[in-house]
Amino acid sequence: MxxxxxxxxxxxxxxxxxxxxxxxxxQVALRPDALILCPLAMAGEDTTVHIVACGRSGQPPKxxxxxxxxxxxxxxxxxxxxxxEIEQYFSACRDAGTYPQLWVSSTAAIRHLDTLADRLRYNRxxxxxxxxxxxxxxxxxRYPTAGQQTLxxxxxxxxxxxxxxxxxGEDEHLGALLAWIASPPxxxxxxxxxxxxxxxxGVKTDPEFDRDILGPRVAAxxxxxxxxxxxxxxxxxxxxxxxxxxxxxxLIYRATQTAIATLRKANLPPHPDLPALERREAEEFSAFMAxxxxxxxxxxxxxxxxxxxxxxxxxxxxQNVEAALRRGDRVxxxxxxxxxxxxxxxxxxxxxxxxxxxxxxxxxxxxxxxRTLRVRRRDDLSWVEDPRLGVTVTDVHxxxxxxxxxxxxxxxxxxxxxxxxxxxxxxxxxxxNWENLLRIRGHLKRRLETMPWxxxxxxxxxxxxxxxxxxxxxxxxxxxx
Length: 481
Hints:
Elements: H1 2-16, E1 20-21, E2 35-40, E3 51-56, E4 62-65, H2 72-95, E5 102-104, H3 107-120, H4 127-142, E6 151-153, H5 154-161, E7 162-163, H6 174-181, H7 189-196, H8 207-227, H9 231-265, H10 274-293, H11 304-328, H12 330-339, E8 343-356, E9 359-368, E10 380-383, E11 390-399, E12 402-411, E13 424-428, H13 436-447, H14 473-479
Parallel strand pairs: 2-5, 5-6
Antiparallel strand pairs: 1-7, 2-3, 3-4, 8-9, 8-13, 9-12, 10-11, 10-13, 11-12
Helix pairs in contact: 1-12, 2-4, 3-4, 6-7, 6-9, 8-9, 11-12, 11-13
């Protein structure tokens, strides 16, 4: 049912020829000092960068290019120059007590940076390249965490805030996505999007461009290197390659800047829990940099304790972000109502029950006419308007076309009190708890002081006592009846 909302939005966008808003609040922090990173790789060379544009939000880019990224020395010089830029940015963020934010055009660029980081952070030939890989690893390892604000794909953020009338896979092309969001008036959006798709927006250039233009240029440069042509002629070949690639990477850089500007122009109110997400991001970044300063290296494989910490952090982030979106974003709350996770109903039969000396229980029923409800006994719910009011489900049963849910107030009896008859309540399955991760890590630390045998170095289970085999197994089984 929740998917029907997105489907209706896509159909409406197709009918009107313009993207439809999918969020009531801005769900990503738009840092004014964000760093935009747009790499392009040579076809067939997924662990290289042919040319890269890098710059701050709202500023022109710096561009680094190598004629042939297959030459290791040239490639390492590019990584070193880019690493200096990122190192300066990370240092400025650390001095300011905040966190870095890197923007790329699409998830394809994120996968490319992830591959680069994984390859370069273990480099033994050049410490500067290794440092670049370590800093890049911080961003790529934060990306799978729900609600992270460090590594942002422009296409993913725009798809979170708008629905287009094209397929989801086509939304990964930043140019086409922007065409739907800001299509010129009086012109078919399908034509505008089709024209935009002719320009590369990922990490690879167009195959026809590679075959007809770039391929011969690189081949001429490589052949000149082998024949030992004069340095001036070799530099001329290198400049020709850069001249061909620079317009491509510049277009991707401008589109990423346009995506950020589009989000700013939308003037959506920031999500209420964005400051909490940013605080967590700053804490993670500070811990990462302190670990690097202490001389700890990024492990090839996580130890059991570190793996448990990372897994628990990701699970906690998913729960908190889902709860935050349902509470703070009206569109996401509508999805919850359609799926039955958010309950809307009218208060009936509120009463106070005396359970002991100066002890009372507050109970009431909620009558809902929702077609789909995913609620069970002992579920804990919170009121959207005032999360201080928490209730526990004690009974659920159908009453004609409606559902009657019996609730016990578990918290907020004094601060909020018992709701009155006829009051409309909207209940969600919990509120975000941004401090819970500290308790989870403390619990894991105590539990993992003694490593379980399944993760011990030997991996040998403890010895079990042996029992003598009975002479007659069938008789032994019959004796158990």
